[in-house]
Fold this sequence. Notes:
It contains 2 helices and 6 strands; from the N terminus they run E-E-E-E-H-E-E-H. The chain is mainly beta. The protein is 11% helix and 30% strand.
Amino acid sequence: MSINGLIGKKIGMTQLFAQDGKVVPVTILKAGPCVVVQRKTSDRDGYEAVQLGLVEFVKEKNVSKPMQGHFKKADVESLRFLREFRVLGDAGEMKVGDRVLAEHFEVSEIIDVVGTSKGRGFQGNIKRHGQR
């Protein structure tokens, strides 16, 4: 099983002190656990991928009826975030309902982090463009 991503959530920021006394800013992430909701195959969809969902409590009334059916078909609880990740190599061992954890990645492995800003609504020129 080799996927190139995992869904996580930013918890906050902190700082660590290096051996030489320098302060290093650190972002704390809750990476996973994720569950496989759907498998895309090259026979049916034209490419190999898995759809992962972040295991996080969400009220049933806040999930649309089509998404409730999608989760019921996969026999998983309602999930807040769904993302699709390409599968590298053989996807035969990944099945719907399997959990994917951060332990599937190596310690020295390079990862890309993609985030979404929280949005700031309508701003005036001073704040939007950093003027003084």
